[in-house]
Write a structure and sequence with these properties.
Blueprint: E1 2-4, E2 7-10, H1 14-20, E3 34-37, E4 39-44, H2 46-54, E5 56-57, H3 64-77, E6 87-92, H4 105-111, E7 117-121, E8 126-129, H5 131-140, E9 151-153, H6 154-166, H7 170-186, E10 189-196, H8 203-215, E11 221-226, H9 232-238, E12 242-243, H10 276-288, E13 292-297, H11 300-317, H12 319-325, E14 328-331, H13 337-346, E15 349-352, H14 354-360, H15 366-371, H16 373-376, H17 382-388, E16 392-394, H18 405-413, H19 424-431, H20 433-438, E17 455-459, E18 463-464, H21 470-476, E19 486-487, E20 497-503, E21 506-510
Parallel strand pairs: 4-10, 5-6, 6-7, 10-11, 12-13, 13-14, 14-15, 15-16
Antiparallel strand pairs: 1-2, 3-17, 7-8, 8-9, 17-20, 18-19, 20-21
């Protein structure tokens, strides 16, 4: 492969490549390593991801007592920026505890010795606050409560997340963002889609991240989205490529806030946060500004609202204009065949997170406990969406799940529900080229002449053609099909090790 001025100039046999190289070209022998397009993580919260790397990560806690012990240890041993201001942590998941009872505000006060505490749930749609934090929240957001309980959801949680971001000193925020992007580069990720918005961060946070990405050329690319309803002008003002991402049509299944057609197993049935008219108006406004629109949609009830709004926008704009704008929906976890067909007709990209199924799918997983085993089988229908022509882009929703691109490809190709998985090659394409297509960049995500030289080099074993079932495998493993192989993604086999990540011809990571 010949790279000139940050672009791939030629790919082929060595002799022709050497003959085509300009005088003084630098020759690198990769000694049999695998070279692929770099991954694109199509859904990331960069600052939050960095804070989980340099701050308090409470994912290992398996009980309220262990959660409180982690807070106690952090209050006692935290240094530098972690030693002052609110004590922030993330990742608790009571569905993994033998006893799901949550600690109270007074318990958190005692563990943190009175310091304000805010601990975000693993799905980033709920949090736990100490009494000291609740008092500050009540003063800052008197009308967003209630502020009389440690367990915050809905608008109270959104206000708490904003409060936590506002409490970060700029230097600490920059440290978290830089750490997240460096970690992404070490995993072969060349680009991330930042899902900013008032529900999770701020315009200041997004502006700082985009400036960091532009100024420091040793980091992956950041494509920014600003998730605010009616926020097209704000998105344009900060250089975002869309007023999209986490504009919440509903919540999450884990927090029982996703909007469903049928009730949860416990009988609860929350409504969608937005109406079809609100979706329509936002989509029309973004399309007329030349920006992508997009929404967070998890439940089938929320998807009904989003699709109705998109179809009303198509009536206002014309089908061609709507399809040409290539809007996107995040997560799309519960979609039946009829809804998938509507997504395909509207030209909507589905930004999906296979790690959700790996963590919460299966007969005994959180989805089954929330919805019942039968309904849980219908979640994350990747194969059906791909077969219908819906463009898929894979991401992590980090810090909800870790940055781990090969594990996402593995999860998509080893789905917990038979028939819902992709071939490894299709999943890999969705995590590379699919991410660029989701951002309306069709020239990237491939290693071909003219494409940006954004790639990763891997230490990998034998390359295989892997498919989720025999119908595909019987065709795709035939040598005449010409399907390129990928590293062995059988569960339990170690993922390839990244040796180098290059973004537009610049090395942003080199393994020691």
């Amino acid at each position: 492969m010949l790279v000139v001025d940050g672009h791939v100039a030629w790919v082929g046999q060595d002799a022709a490549g050497r003959a085509s190289a300009p005088q003084g070209a630098h020759l690198v022998d990769l000694d049999g390593a695998l070279v692929t397009p770099a991954f694109v993580d199509a859904h990331v919260h960069t600052t939050g991801t960095g804070l989980s790397l340099i701050g308090l990560d409470v994912r290992p806690a398996r009980s309220a007592a262990e959660l409180l012990e982690a807070v106690r240890r952090e209050a006692r041993e935290g240094t530098g920026p972690r030693a002052t201001g609110p004590l922030l942590g993330s990742g608790w998941d009571e569905t993994a505890w033998a006893d799901p009872a949550l600690p109270g505000a007074d318990d958190l006060d005692a563990a943190a010795q009175g310091r304000p505490v805010l601990l975000t749930r693993v799905d980033a749609h709920a949090s736990l606050a100490s009494s000291a934090a609740l008092r500050e929240l009540a003063a800052a957001y008197p009308h967003r409560g209630p502020w009389d309980t440690a367990h915050l959801t809905g608008s109270a949680h959104a206000a708490a997340a904003r409060w936590a971001h506002d409490a970060l000193p700029p230097a600490h925020r920059a440290l978290a963002q830089r750490e997240a992007l460096r970690h992404a580069a070490s995993l072969g990720i060349g680009s991330v889609h930042e899902m900013a918005g008032p529900a999770f961060s701020s315009l200041e946070d997004l502006t700082a991240l985009l400036e960091l990405s532009a100024q420091e050329t040793s980091l992956p690319d950041v494509l920014g989205y600003w998730g605010e309803l009616g926020g097209a002008e704000a998105a344009e003002g900060v250089g975002a490529i869309g007023a999209a991402g986490d504009i919440l049509v509903d919540g999450t299944i884990g927090s029982r806030t996703a909007a469903l057609r049928e009730a949860y197993a416990d009988g609860s049935r929350p409504a969608a946060y937005l109406t079809a008219a609100q979706v329509r108006d936002h989509v029309v406004g973004c399309t007329r500004h030349g920006l992508q629109a997009g929404f967070h949609v998890i439940g089938d009830g929320a998807l009904d609202v989003a699709l109705a709004g998109l179809e009303e926008a198509a009536q206002a704009l014309g089908d061609a204009a709507l399809r040409g704008a290539r809007h996107r929906l995040e997560h799309v976890e519960l979609a039946d065949a009829e809804a998938i067909g509507r997504l395909a007709r509207l030209g909507v990209t589905a930004s999906v997170q296979p790690a959700f199924d790996a963590l919460w799918g299966g007969a005994d997983g959180m989805y089954a406990r929330r919805l019942g085993a039968g309904r849980a089988q219908a979640l994350n229908p990747f194969a059906a969406m791909a077969a219908a022509g819906v463009v898929l882009a894979l991401g992590s929703d980090a810090p909800v799940t870790p940055l781990a691109p090969w594990e996402a490809v593995r999860a998509a190709s080893h789905h917990s529900a038979p028939g819902s998985g992709l071939s490894a090659r299709a999943a890999f394409t969705a995590h590379t080229r699919g991410g660029w297509r989701a951002a309306r960049r069709d020239d990237a995500g491939v290693l071909a002449p003219g494409a940006p030289a954004t790639y990763a080099v891997w230490e990998a074993g034998e390359l295989l053609v892997q498919a989720p079932d025999l119908r595909v495998a019987n065709w795709s493993t035939d040598p005449r099909s010409g399907v390129p192989g990928l590293p062995d993604l059988t569960p339990g086999v170690p993922a390839p090790r990244c040796l180098q990540t290059v973004v537009r011809g610049r090395a942003v990571y080199v393994a020691a």
